[in-house]
Amino acid sequence: MTGVPSSSLLRRLRPGLFAAVVLSTAVLGTALTAPAADAAAPAAHPGVAPAPRAAAVSVAAPTETVPPTATSTPSTSPVPPSPPTNLTASEVRTGSITLTWTAATSGCCAITGYDITYYQEFGDVVLSASAGAVTTTTITTHVGPGMQFSFRMIARDSLGQRSNWSNALTVVTPVTDTGPDTTPPSAPQSLTVGEVTASTARLSWSPSTDNVGVSGYNVYRFDGWFTSRLIATVPGTTYTTDLPTSTPLRNLYYVRARDAVGNVSIASNTVELPTTSTPTPPPPSTCRVTYRNQSEWQGGFVATATVHNAGAAPVDGWTVTFSFPGDQQVTSGWNATIGQTGATVTARNVDWNRVLAPNSSATFGVQGRWSASDAPPTGFSLNGAPCTVG
Questions:
Q1: 382 within 8 A of 375, measured Cβ to Cβ
Q2: pLDDT tens digits along 295-338
Q3: pLDDT given for residue 227 in this prediction
Q4: What SS3 state is found at 142?
Q5: What Rg do the C-alpha atoms of the chain give, in angstroms?
Q6: What is the pLDDT of residue 45?
Q7: DSSP labels for 8-43?
């Protein structure tokens, strides 16, 4: 006999979310959590009379201590039903899924019906349905072509007690009921992450099978909440994907096999990939250096450099560093203390130009020699921070 289910839905809790969004006023909370077998029971089991109160008895003091004899009182707590078992899908169509199961065993009271919860994979909506004291029912609410659902159910008895959950069942619907192929492929197995570079990751999985033939695989990205996006369809069992720069919750990937008519398999396991970090743009430069060759002759040169404070705060003590691209060697300098190590030149303030106020500058000069090249430097820093040139 097939039960006619009633249905409701609510939002599924996700890790990191504060609460679920209830989409229906139907009472589902009691169906989602089965009570423990030792939950508090009514005061007395129907049909079991309470034990009579014992009469008061006066007892003389004993001459010796005798250990009391342990007694046991049978429990009168109602026993909830056992969970239904062997939950399976006996028929799966584009718009309906027929469930069958082995009936629960009553604990104390008659089984009055079953409560079913189900949700579409990679979504946040949980649906519910109720059936009477039957062992089969057909679910149609929110069921459509090519959709994957997970089902569980509990039994309830005449006292309103509920069993533990049944086994979980995952089902995918076909995309056609009348076409040449109504059987989806098997699920891809063992999705793993291979080589990961700074910007890409390589996914691989074991192949699926199909009664006609697997034509390819769909690769999806899932945000861990309710949004899945198809990012690629590939003929083989590997795919190299770009790493996203950000993700709202999680960066999960899964794969589905597909056949020639568009049937898709149950999804593979999910894997999580890292995200690339967006490069932080450098802060705007707060200094500018202008370098000029004042005079140059074969084997010698004289040059000046002007450092400008473009920041909003004064610079109290400054050191300008630059490197010669040629083979120049500084022999003397003025308006700064000049030092050179290899190609790197360091110019430190002297006492009278130690402070650079905002929008002010200081100029120092160098004299030196060269042999192969007297090309001007192209990069400067002020107190370790890069400066613009010019």
A1: no
A2: 999 999 999 999 999 989 999 999 999 999 999 999 999 999 99
A3: 79
A4: coil
A5: 39
A6: 37
A7: EEEEPP-TT-S-PPP---S--HHHHSPPPTT----S
User: The dihedral of CA 120, 99, 268, 28: what is its sign?
Assistant: positive
Contact 126, 8 (CB under 8 A): no
- 17-24 long-range contacts, Cβ below 8 Å, gap at least 24? 17/225, 20/126, 23/125
As a whole number of angstroms, the distance between CA 341 and CA 324 comes to 11
CA distance 42 to 47: 12
Nearest to 376 by CA among 362, 386, 363, 390: 390
Which residue positions in the chain have pLDDT lower than 50?
1-2, 4, 14-66, 70-75
For the record, the structure tokens of 130 come out as 């109720």
Question: What are the backbone angles phi and psi of residue 231, rounded to the nearest 5°?
Answer: -105, -15
Tokens of 2: 């097939």
Give the pLDDT score at 277: 54
Question: Dihedral of the CA atoms 139, 140, 142, 146 (nearest 10)?
Answer: 90
CA–CA distance, 76 with 48 (Å, rounded to integer): 7
Give the separation between CA 359 and CA 336, rounded to whole angstroms. Answer: 19
**Terminus-to-terminus CA distance in the chain, angstroms?**
88
Q: What is the pTM of this model?
A: 0.54
DSSP state of 169: E
